[in-house]
Design a protein that fits this description.
Layout: E1 19-20, E2 23-30, E3 37-44, E4 49-50, E5 53-54, E6 59-66, E7 68-72, E8 78-80, E9 85-88, E10 94-98, E11 104-111, E12 120-121, H1 127-130
Antiparallel strand pairs: 1-4, 2-3, 3-11, 5-12, 6-9, 6-11, 7-8, 7-10
Length: 135
Amino acid sequence: MNIHRAGSRPSLTPSPDYFTGQVRMDPINAIPEPGRVRAVQVTFEPGARTAWHHHPYGQTLVVTAGKGLVQQEGEAIHEITPGDVVSIPAGEKHWHGASPDVGMSHIAIQEADADGATSTWLEHVTDAEYGADRA
C-alpha cells in the first residue's frame, strides 16, 4: 500500500502537442503491474482543451469544478458541470476542456494497454470546432 499525502507529488504540465491553452495535471494513481488503471486530476484554464483523441479501453471523466465542454466526433458539444460523469467508449474520437470563460477540473480515469498507452492523440481542436454550436 502507498499513501500519497496531499501536495506530496508535483503537478505536471502536459505536452502542447496534445493540449491547447494552460492545463495542469495532478496524478492520483498509477497502479503498478499487473494493474492498468490510471487516474489524474486535470485542470483547464478558460479556453483550454485537449486535442482530439481516443482511448484503447475508454475513459471516465468526473467533473469536480467549473464549467467544461466535451464532444464526440460528429456530434454537438455538451456542457459539463461539477458532479457530471462522462463515460467515453473505447475508440471513440473526442475532446474535452474548459468553457471559454470558466475553467474546469475533472478526474480522468482510463486503462492502459499492454504497452502502457492510455490515449492515442490526434489533431488539435480548431478554434472553429471549439466555438461550434452546443447541444
